[in-house]
Design goal:
Blueprint: H1 3-9, H2 13-21, H3 26-33, E1 38-39, H4 40-46, H5 52-64, E2 68-73, E3 79-84, H6 86-89, H7 92-108
Antiparallel strand pairs: 1-3, 2-3
Helix pairs in contact: 1-2
């Protein structure tokens, strides 16, 4: 168990969820992997604002936390695929709800323009 998740488990289950899923791009990674297995480059194209280092770090944390599975194929050039574990797939309802809420919020959010 990663240290932030271990610490959160001493506080509250909500904090555990935030420790596992609260990193930059993590929920968006899960959202895209709900549609199926993807390679690193495919994820990078789906998340153009995420740098390669950030994406790598988030995928490693999700893998360490049991949400994402990384499969490496012994071939040249190397082939690596990412998919959700059963635990990761269990997030579908939560991710769908957050996606819908985010779309509604974006449509209704007060403007921050200052004239």
């Amino acid at each position: 168990m990663r240290k932030p998740v271990e610490t959160a488990s001493q506080v509250c289950p909500v904090e555990v969820a935030v420790a596992v899923l609260g990193g930059t791009w993590k929920l968006t990674i899960v959202k895209h992997l709900l549609d199926g297995t993807l390679r690193f480059g495919e994820l990078g194209r789906l998340l153009p604002l995420a740098g390669a280092r950030t994406l790598t770090r988030q995928l490693r944390e999700l893998e360490e936390d049991g949400v994402v599975e990384r499969t490496v194929y012994a071939q040249v050039p190397p082939k690596v695929e990412y998919s959700l574990t059963e635990l990761g797939r269990s997030l579908q309802g939560i991710v769908t709800s957050l996606d819908e809420w985010g779309a509604e919020y974006s449509a209704q959010a007060p403007s921050t323009d200052q004239d």
